[in-house]
Every structure is written in structure tokens, then in C-alpha cells.
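Before the break, one more example. Copy the sequence into your notebook; we will annotate it together after we see the structure.
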Amino acid sequence: MIDEIQVKDVALIREASLSPSPGLTVLTGETGAGKTALVSAVKLLVGERADSSYVREGAKNAEVRGRLFPSDPAAEELVAVRKVSADGRSRATINGTMASVSELARTVGPLVELCGQHEYQSLLKPAEHGRILDGWADLESTVGAAFREALADARAAEAALEEMRATASASNTQLEEARFTLQQIEAVNPEGGEYEETRDWLARAEHAEVLARNSHGAAEALSGDGGALDALNTAISLIEEASRADESLAPFATTLRETCFVVEDVARDMAGYCDSIDFDGESLAAAQERMGQLMGLMRSFGPTMEAVFERWDAAAALVGLIDDADENLARAEAALDEIDYKLAQAAAAYDAARAEAAPQFAAAVNEVLGRLEMGTAALVCTVEPLPRENWSAAGSASVVFEFKPGASMQPRPLARIASGGEISRVMLAIKVALGAKDGTETLVFDEVDAGVGGSTANALATVLAELADSHQVIAITHLAQVAVLADAHYTVTKTAGDAPETILAPVTGDARVAEVARLLSGTATETSLAHARELLRQ
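Here is what the structure looks like once it is written out:
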């Protein structure tokens, strides 16, 4: 839910701040005062497209900053900022990190829904009707999830079968090339790491004389007669004799003695290395021949041994598939048949659950429509199974919302028969029916009460207040009946002059009484003020 929205230089708003209640918050004001500018600010915050028209005349940027607290207790505070420059460029940040507008829409968009007569497009799209029904009936995580999993498995099996068929029908040229590759590599039969091992062995073998001579010479220079060890021991004796007269020299003798240990170890290792050099001519010739074979493979199928092994695997796989094509195809077709059977069962269960839920959902919505005094108007929810080729992640049946303006009239698609006001109230009824099952936390209603008065206004106000029990509701309204039920009340006014500004301010106490009186009669008279106080006390 929204904790605070700060708006700067959007339309006629120089600077404004809105801290809505967790329940029902209303915004009231004269027509043309700038209430639409606040809706525009919310659109920016949820990642809708924007251009330079959003920027206040004379300003460099329009900016909206929102702080939200998702209902998930594990989720952290969310701070989103959207800026639109006078040249139309848009920038956004989420918790201080640069983000694209699409990221803003994915992050903030699901938390806030705009519900104005021009924002009800989702209600007019049959693709959304299934999602709404599933949400109400809790089908998304049960039969819906099972269907989508089975559908994904079926598509994967179909793709695997098609790939196998394509491989099985490989051209003779491809097959012959694969068989030749397989024959050539298997004739050499290289092993992993063999090339590197042979290369290093040959490097030593081809320089055996130099290695033996130099390692032996190093050992003799270190430990032979007159070598380094003899010189070190002589120096140690001389220093120890001198240290009897000057004790400060003793550490030098200790250091040289430790050096003797290192020199002895190196001399021993050199002598051992020299003794290990035993490269006979036969072994050398065999290694050179093997190296030639491995390098030949790399020239033909490389350029590296890793590439050779990849060609080997690919050729073996192709030949194996073709050689066992009939058996593999039969096995893949049987697997697909089994998966298709499971998919058909999942689809039947999904369709049945939707068909059962549809009239119950319609009844729940129509109960609210009745309270909104829409007479015998009703929502009709139908579920029709789709052909197999039309199945998708949205389901195996089409879910369609239709509208009957009267009991004796035939239901027709909402877009064809319902007015803007009717669609608004149908959406309101759906939101009430969904209750807490609706994934959206904050609902912003832009003049949902347009053209409503009398007892219908009272009913609409009651329904909005009820909706605020399960959602954070922000409503732009002209109805006093709605305003008096609000937990927080803001007024929107526009200053006079050549450069008018829209001012947003919370109202309480006498100021709120005066605003409700204005909504009732257009002006604050003694009669309207008394009526306003009475409504606020109820």
C-alpha cells in the first residue's frame, strides 16, 4: 500500500504531498481544479507511458516519488521515483537504483490499480476474465497450476519428438560425414588430458641430455667437494669463532645454518631428478607418433582437443539416433501420448472447476450490483471449452464476462452494451466480490460516481467503504455520501491568476464540514452545513 506520494511539477501541481489512509481516502474539489493531475502522477508512478505534456509549464522535470509498503511481511519498504523531462525523456529509480520504466511497471504496477472509466480496459478483454475467475475461486494454484504444468510437459514432448524426426530424416551427406568423423576419431581413440600429458613428456624427453647434464651439475655445485655447502660451513665456523668476541654476530651463523638445510634439500632433489631421466629411444618414438595422431585430429576436427571431443560426441549422437531411429521415435510417440492423456485430464478438471465457479462468481458480483441499485442488470460468466490447438497458459476454455442491462435482455459483451458508468460499477462490484483475493493492494478510483445521485449514491458510498476493508482505496469523488465515510479527506483547489496552481491539502474539523456542505449544495449555507455535520456524525 501507498504510504506517501510526493508530486512536483506535474501539470498544474507545483508541489504536493498525499499520505493516504490504509482504508478509504477521498479527494474532492471543483471540476477543473486539477484532480486529474493527481491521477497522472499515479500513472507515472506505476510505469505508464508519459511525455512532455506531463511537465508543468516552465519546469525542467515532472517528478513523482512514492513510498510503498507491500503487504508481504517479509517485503521491505519500496521507494520509487519517476522523472519526466521537458523534452519527454523518462528516468526511474527503485530504492535508489536506476531502473527502466518497464521495471517500474513490473515492480510497482501490480501493487496499484487505476480504476477510471478509461482504465477499465482489462475488464473488456476476455483474456483477463479467466484470470479474475481463477483468482476468485482459488484455481490459480490448484487445477490451473496442474494444467499449465501438464501443458508445458506436452509442449516439451512435442518439441523433442519434432527434433527427433528432423534428426532421423537427416540427409545422406550429413550421415556419411558423421560416420566418417566417428571412424577417424575412434581410430585414434584419444583420452581426456592425453594431449597435454604427451606434449609435456616430449618436451622433457627431447631435451633429456641438457636436463641430465644441468641437474647433475647443479647438484655437484651445491653439495660436491668445494661446493656451496662447503663454503657455507666454512663461513659458519668463522662467524661462530668471531661471535665469541662479539655476540651480535651469532644470528648470522644461525641464518647461514638454516640456509644449509635449504641447499641440502635442493641438492638432493636435483640429484633425484637427474637419476629419474631415463628416456629411451623407443619410448620417444612412440610418443612422437602419438603426438602426430592427436595433432592430426586437431587439424581435421579442431582446432583444439575440446573441439575434437565435441565433434566426436555430436557424430556419435547423430549416428546413434539414426541407427535407432525407429525405436527412438516409437518411444517418443508413446511418451507424448501418455503426456497428452495427462494433459486432457488436467484440462477437464480445470474446465469443470471453472464451470462450477462461474455462476457462483456471477452471483457474488450481481449481489453487489443489486446493492448499487442497478436494477435487474447482471453480469453473466460463461465457460466454453476450446479446441486443443487453442490451449494456452490462459487455460483450455474461454471465460467470458457478458452484461445484461435488464432481466429480459440477452447478455452481450461488456464493450458492446455497457456504458462507461456501468462498466465502472461492474468493476467495483468485481473488486468487492474478489475482496482480499485480489492481488492488487491499492485501488485508485477516478470519479467512479459519475452520473450517480440519490439513493444510488448512498449505496455506492457503502460499497466503497466495504471495499476499503480489504484494500487501500483512494477515490476522487463529487459525492458527499462518499466523502463522509473516508478515513482521510483531501481537497483539490486551483489558484486564480495567469499562472494557476493546483493545491492539495488535507481537511479536518470545520474545514471538512464546509467541504462536505459544498458537495451537498454547491455552497456552504447554514442548511448544507447542518446536513454535513449530520452526515459526518453517522
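The mean pLDDT is 87. The CA atoms of residues 372 and 459 lie 5 Å apart. Try to locate both features in your own notes.
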